[in-house]
Structures are given as C-alpha cells and as structure tokens.
Amino acid sequence: MNDDRTLERAARSFIEVGPTRAPEHAVDAALLRIESTTQERALRIPWRFPTMPLPARLVALAVVGALVLIGLAMLGGTVGSSPSPVEPTSQAIAPASASPSPSPTPTVVPVRALPESGYVGPGRYVTTMPDAPVDAAFTIDTIWDSGGWWIGNQTPPTSISFWTVANVYRDACDTATLPDPPIGPTVDDLVAALDAQANTDMSAPVDVVVDGHPGVRVELTPSDGLPGSCQNPMWLFTRPNTRNLPEVPDDQGRGIDREGVGELVEPAWILDVDGERVVIFAYNGGLRQAPGDPTAAVIESMTLTKR
Amino acid sequence: VSRGVEVDRDLVVGARSGDREAFTVLVHQVSDSLYAVAHRILRDPGLAEDALQNALVLAWRRLPKLREPDRFEAWIHRILVHACYDESQRARQWTAQIRVLPIDGPSTPDGSAALADRDELEWAFRRLTVEQRAVFVLHHYLGLPLVEVAELLEIPAGTARSRLHYALAGLRDALVAEREPVVQEGRLA
C-alpha cells in the first residue's frame, strides 16, 4: 500500500466524522425566509410553456375580451375624472405606432402593467426593463403567457424578453469565460463582444429604430460543429440580483436550447434608449424573423420611455 | 445521490408548482444530508448553516426551473455547493488564516506514511481550495462516482478528476509541511 492510499484512507475516515443532522434553528430560519419568498419563473425557456388546451384558451380569450370591453367602457366614462378604482395600475397613453389620423376623437388605449405570471389577453401592456430605468409598452392581439419581463407562446413557439446586459461570455459554450474588464456600455460594445464570441455566429448588424430610439438588429445562432455537450450555448447575462434572479451566473443568462434541433436563430434588438442600452430578444421558434412573425408586430407597437 | 435520502417525486412536483407545504416536507427530508455536506466542505458550523439556509431559499425560488423532478437531489446538492462557494468567499473576505505552528519537529519518523491525526488533517483540509474540498466530499463522503460529481457540478469529468488529484496532493503537501521542523518560535501560515 503506498503513501497516497494511506493518506486517502485517512482523509476519507476524517470526513466521515462530523455532524449528520441539520440544526433545527437553521432549518426553521430557512423556512421562515421561504414563507416570504416568491418563486421565479423559468428564465431560459420562455419559449417552452405549459400547454393551454384550446377550449381553455378560447374561454380565457372570451373572458379577457369581456374585461377589456368593460374596462374600455369604464375608461370612456371616466376620462377627465378620477382614475378607476378597479384598475389602479392602468394608465392611458397613445399607441406607439399611431400615425397621424384625421379622426376627430383620439383613441385612448388603456395600458396595464404586465403581470409577473399568468396569461394576458389582447391589449396594451407596460413592463419595466430589468435593472434599467426604461419602461417598454407594447400591444398584443392574442393570448400570451407573461413572466413580468417577458411574454411567450407555445404555439407557435415565440417569446419576447427584455434584458439589461452586464457582460458577454467569451465562449458561448463556457460560461466561465468572461471578458475582464466587462464589456463597455454602448450598443457597439455589445455588438463587438457578441461578434467576437466563440461558438456563436452573428449576422451583420442592421440599423433599426424603435420608437425613435436607434440601435441594431442582429441574429445570433450557434456555430456549426458545436460539441454535443454544448446543449445550451449562452450569449450573455444580466446583472446579479436583478429582479431577485438567482445568484448563479448560468441562470441569469440568455442563450438558446438546442434540444429541438432547427435553424435555432435568435434575433436581438440592441437599442440605445436615451443613453441606456437595452436588449430585446424576439424568439420566433428558432427561425429567422419573417413577415407574419408575431414578434415583429409586437416590436413595431413598442414605445420605450426612459424614466 | 448515493448517501442522500430518498425524496418523494410527488412532493418535488408539488413544490415546483408552488406548494409550500410540499416544499417544507422536502426541506425536512434533505436538510440533514445537505448540512452534513456543507459542514464537511466548509469546516465551520456557522458557515454551513448559512450555506444550508441560502441553498434552501434559492432552491425554492428556482424550483419552477427544474425540468426533471427525478434529478432533484443532484440539483439541490449543486445549489448547495455553489452556496458553499459563496460562503467560503465571504468568509475569506473577513478572516485571515493565521496559524502558529508548533516548534517541535515531526511527531512521527515518516510523516507521509503514517496516519495523520485529526488536527493535522483538519489543518491540511482547510488548506485546500473550496472547489477541491467539494469534489473530495461529494466523491468520498457522498459516494458519488467522479462522473456524477462532474455532472452535478457541471464541470468536465477531467476537471473533477484533476481537483480530486490536487486535493490529495494538497493534503500530502500540507501534512509534510506541518511536520517539518520549525526553528523559530512560530510563523504565520
């Protein structure tokens, strides 16, 4: 028997000794904290949603539609007076893409805060960008699942999510590789970092303007020949503790799941909203954005307001 | 997890859907095992308690993201190990590792061949990195094969093997250093 085996045996015996029961007060304290802790929704899989049966969707659509009509009726009756106590979070603003119209009576669209969970029906919603003083309002005309800072659908698999980027992985297949110092704050900084990211192919940036805010649109896709172990190539991640996200860097990131093999493209809108860089991912089932893509209409309807 | 406890899959599914009572039962099922692992990695009851608490709270928050309920035990142990990393880092920021070595020479003629006593091993074990300790504890205490340790920690199998190798080498070096004669009255390690 060599020395190393003796040492290994001694070390194994050593770690056998020690407590085997958790102190009650520690467990109680954890349970107490859990009582006031809400669960997070899935972050990296907003394009995977529980199936909502068609009848249920129709019922939900009818209910939501009725509520919208009631809300509009109530709002119509209260414009110019005190806010409705029924919908304290609603506000009234003009839609983003409203074009000059000869209509003598301007349309007032109620805007609701995007709920942290659950399904939302047709209407206009507003969400606050994670960790940035920017509000994003948008219009949807069908039922979507909501996570508070993202909306998504299962059929077809689509999602739109809002991100404030802290850094970009140097290698999409290795979340331990980070540029040090982190990337700079501008749109160009982020584009350059994504372009340089190993195991990711980025399309040529296309200049875009959303609600008057300049930026670029790029499409990210995993490079050819990715190792089989790299099932979740990751593009970037948000700042720690943003919206109580878990403190595990991998889980604050945005990437793509290669499980359902397809084209696996994810369009990203990288915008400068009055000095704040924000990123909107518009996932369209892993396909390139095309006419009729439901995410395009949502982006088009968007207003971005720095508070 | 070889040395872990059996958890009820239905409880995991229920807790994942937001059932706090189900999660409370789960907590009581896994806490002992988690604490035992945390204590052995961190070598400190206070830090181990903090790691346990943080891991349980984080597990509750992240549970909706768990895709495979059957993997709950490995999943929560992974969260625990990360919590241990955090606690270790926090502890390093506030404490200085100071130890006065004895002035006597080696206690045995052949230090590397003889069984080290518990104090020596404790000292040597604390000299390892927390990542090395985690692999050592998961492999030797929890009884996980290295491949499963690597999966649990989401590191390449080669990295897990390397950490275990360097853990043993580190223990050996620390024990040898511990037993070398020190001529001065004491020194800071």
Describe this structure in a few short sentences.
With 307 residues, chain A is α+β, with helices and mostly antiparallel strands. Helices cover 22% and strands 28% of the residues of chain A. By secondary structure, chain B is mainly alpha-helical.
Features:
heterodimer; A: 307 residues; alpha+beta; 9-stranded antiparallel β-sheet; 5-stranded mixed β-sheet; 5 helices; 17 strands; 22% helix; 28% strand; globular; B: 189 residues; mainly alpha; 8 helices; disordered C terminus
* Global structural class of chain A: alpha+beta
Instruction: Indicate the radius of gyration of chain B in whole angstroms.
Output: 19 Å
Query: Fraction of residues of chain B in helices?
Result: 55-70%
Order of helices and strands of chain A: HHHEEEEEEEEEHEEEEEEEHE
Largest sheet of chain B: none
Number of helices of chain B: 8
H/E element sequence of chain B: HHHHHHHH
Question: Roughly how much helix do the residues of chain A carry, as a percent range?
Answer: 10-25%
Please, what is the average pLDDT of chain B?
Answer: 79
General form of chain A: globular
Which assembly state applies to the chains in this document? heterodimer
Strand content of chain B: under 5%
Percentage of β-strand residues of chain A? 25-35%
**On the 0-100 scale, what is the average pLDDT of chain A?**
74
- CA-CA gap between termini of chain B: 36 Å
Largest sheet of chain A: 9 strands, antiparallel
